[in-house]
Amino acid sequence: MEFLPLAGRNRFSTTLGSTIYLTPKRYDNYYSGSPSIRTTGLVIHEKVHVRQYQEDWLFQLKYIFSRSARLNYEIEAYAEQIKFSIEHYPSRKAKYIKQKAKTLSSCPYLLCMSYESVHKRLDAKVDELVKASNEHIT
Ligand SMILES: [Zn+2]
Fold it and tell me: Which of 6, 41, 128, 138 is packed most tightly, with the most Cβ within 10 A?
């Protein structure tokens, strides 16, 4: 896995195959020695896509051409990101889930799905991950 600053793209970080492209601001923050919770959360999200790509060589095709596959991939990535963020800000759980469900269900994300169904699935996935990691610790 490698990290590259994404010249000319200041708004989005993204992942192509095993390479994570960060906006210059995020890249600098990530390598600053003390990356913010937000940057680390974003990298955790993108790392999930790297794992998805490594586990399934059809990942990119499915991501592009199947809305339901894309939703599954994003729910997993956002749930990991939220799980990490609420380890630092537990009181923001509901806010984060709302925010990300809104992003995911929106048409710019090419999903155009109902907010309620995305919210329900994301909420359930976050609980599943939190539960799994608690079981792991004890
Ligand atoms: Zn994503």
Answer: 41
The three-state secondary structure class of 110 is coil
| C-alpha 55 to ligand 1 mean position (Å) | 16
The one-character DSSP state at 114 is -
Spatial contact of 52 and 73, defined as CB atoms under 8 Å apart: yes
Q: Given the structure tokens 């896995």, which residue do they identify?
A: 1
Nearest CA to 14 out of 42, 52, 35, 51 is that of: 42
- Per-residue model confidence (pLDDT) at position 123: 97
As a whole number, mean pLDDT of residues 63-82 equals 92
| Cα 138 to middle of ligand 1, angstroms | 30
Residues 129, 138: Cα–Cα separation, whole Å: 15
pTM given for the model: 0.86
